[in-house]
């Protein structure tokens, strides 16, 4: 039996190997938070805070003390953590934020402060590549002024018209804009 491969057999085997190695990896899905988790950035209990929350999966890194995703009590903590870990070489696979276009988000008032409802179910999240964020609105979340994400740009515009602020694509949020919140 001849152990050599013909050129055609070699090319076919190489192509199959490349195809097997190039199968697309699935983007991890958001998970439902039960509310008892602590924020991986500031340590606050997520379910005790108001406003948008977030989750991030990283390529080669995981949060300390639990399985991915990294969990956050606010969109502000989500971005602050991402900016800090990116400086340490962590690469985000996907970041999810509460999508206020997909939930019945309400603004209530407590002691004169406008607070936005929180939503912890996986179906309430959208990837940052798909949301527009209202920055500088007069509503607060866990870390003070909230960054409020919307899957529909028109919803973000309407929210900004009612509650102040500016709309920015979530992927364009700068460190400076986040630090002002």
From TrEMBL:
<protein>
    <submittedName>
        <fullName>NosL protein</fullName>
    </submittedName>
</protein>
<dbReference type="Pfam" id="PF05573">
    <property type="entry name" value="NosL"/>
</dbReference>
<dbReference type="InterPro" id="IPR008719">
    <property type="entry name" value="N2O_reductase_NosL"/>
</dbReference>
């Amino acid at each position: 039996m001849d152990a050599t491969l013909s050129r055609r057999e070699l090319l076919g085997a190489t192509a199959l190997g490349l195809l097997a190695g190039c199968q697309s990896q699935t983007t991890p899905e958001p998970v439902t938070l039960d509310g008892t988790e602590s924020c991986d950035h500031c340590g606050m209990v997520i379910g005790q805070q108001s406003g948008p929350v977030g989750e991030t999966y990283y390529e080669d890194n995981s949060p300390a003390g639990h399985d991915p995703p990294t969990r956050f009590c606010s969109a502000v903590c989500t971005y602050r953590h991402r900016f800090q870990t990116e400086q340490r070489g962590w690469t985000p696979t996907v970041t999810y934020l509460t999508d206020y276009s997909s939930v019945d988000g309400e603004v209530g008032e407590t002691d004169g402060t406008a607070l936005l409802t929180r939503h912890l179910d996986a179906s309430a999240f959208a990837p940052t590549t798909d949301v527009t964020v209202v920055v500088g609105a007069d509503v607060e979340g866990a870390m003070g002024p909230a960054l409020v994400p919307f899957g529909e740009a028109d919803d973000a515009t309407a929210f900004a018209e009612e509650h102040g602020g500016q709309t920015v694509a979530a992927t364009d949020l700068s460190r400076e804009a986040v630090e002002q919140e």
